[in-house]
Amino acid sequence: MRFWLRASAVMLALSSASPAFAQQQPPEHRTEWPGLVSGDDGIDGLESGPELQRGREPRAMLADQRRLHTALAALQPERKNVVDAYVLSVALDSDPVFAREARESGRVLTRRYDAEGRTLVLAGADGRGGAILPAGSLTALTLALARVAELMDRNQDVLVLYVTAHGAPDAGIAYHDGDQGFGVLPPKRLAELLDGLGIRNRLLLVSACYSGTFVKRLMSDTTAILTAASATRSSFGCRAENDWTFFGDALVNHALRKPQPLADAASEARKTIIGWERAGRLDPSMPQVTIGEGVGAWLAPLEARMPQTATAPVGAPATDALKP
């Protein structure tokens, strides 16, 4: 799932869903990216996390805003004297593999971390007839983080953030929604959002190429961060037809369904991914795992409440992408 960024603009192939299927099918990619920054700074101009929306149908915009408003309003406040997890699972690209992964990741993480009523999935349409959810975008992600910060006890509660999309070398996550939405979520911008909102306790799961670029900027004593690849490597499995990326399938669909500690689940997922990549003769993605020394203070209470029975994986294996 390689993705390239030029100095003054992000370029990608896109296509757009026809109006007749707008409510059932996610928009496809057809046109090239517009320039998101200007001047001579080039890629440095992306650090603020630019976002561009263009040509959206007004009724569709209103409908999505209503879905987002309803979802934000439905989030429950934290419970006194309980370490609560707030799960936010976001697809930042309209290729339907990301919507499918974000949806099921939201379910798995909600069950694992006792987050019923405290979960928000931003994933639009999944191309399979599932309910239309609020669309993932940089603005929606920002508003969701702000709402979570309002509701949580920031001294004890935890943000569990799962982001799935394409990644861009030296830049971060590429937000790309059909022909209408474009943007970049760089490590600097995500760190500013979380730090500015006072969200200190966080489990960050980033499923994208080059996602290791987030580790250095986001790491802290109370942060655990798992990424699909190192800062210089691609990850795999993101073709639109898939149900999972390699990272999502190995970590969420298998390892995190089991009643095992996070570190063990991360180790299992990493070994699984290495095996799949070797079998497919792929360049190693080198998933990253970094867990701060203070993470145990909030992780231990959550894991003490984990269900003690595993659930079965769902969807087609990510390795189907390797079949001829």
Short précis:
This protein is of the alpha/beta class. Helices cover 30% and strands 15% of the residues.
Explain this structure to me?
- Helix 6 runs antiparallel to helix 7.
- The protein is of the alpha/beta class and 324 residues long.
- The strands form two sheets. The protein has a six-stranded mixed beta sheet with strand order 3-2-4-8-9-10, with helices on both faces. Strands 1-7-6-5 form a four-stranded antiparallel beta sheet.
- The longest helix has 18 residues.
- 30% of the residues lie in helices and 15% in strands.
Structural class by helix and strand composition = alpha/beta
**From the alpha-carbon coordinates, what is the Rg to the nearest angstrom?**
18 Å
List the secondary-structure elements in sequence, H or E. Answer: EHEHEHEEEEHEHEHHEH
Beta-strand portion reads 15-25%
Overall, the morphology is globular
**Segments where pLDDT lies below 50 for 5+ residues?**
1-23
Taking strands numbered 1, 2, ... along the chain, how are they ordered across the largest sheet? 3-2-4-8-9-10
Number of helices: 8
The portion of residues assigned to helices is 25-40%
Question: In total, how many beta strands?
Answer: 10
**How confident is the prediction overall: mean pLDDT?**
89
Biggest sheet details: 6 strands, mixed
What distance lies between the first and last C-alpha atoms, to the nearest angstrom?
17 Å
